Amino acid sequence: MISVGIKELKAKLSSYVDMVQNGDEIVVTERGKEVAIVIPFSLERRLVSKLMKSGKATWSGGKPEGITGIHVRGGSISETILEERA
Prior knowledge:
With 86 residues, the chain is of the alpha+beta class.
């Protein structure tokens, strides 16, 4: 994991974004104190984005509680799993 101060991050943002795209995680510090972490998009987040773009799911943008924040069109997840197993 790479650690960088805010001033350097701002000055070299593009290169740090490239590092994150290649899988690195960046810890952002302010006056030596860790204040944030920049990480690559997870596979799960990419899949949810793909579902939203295709119109198969919607998301209010808030932090979901369980699965109440994400709505998928069609049958329930448990019904779909049972159908796939048959």
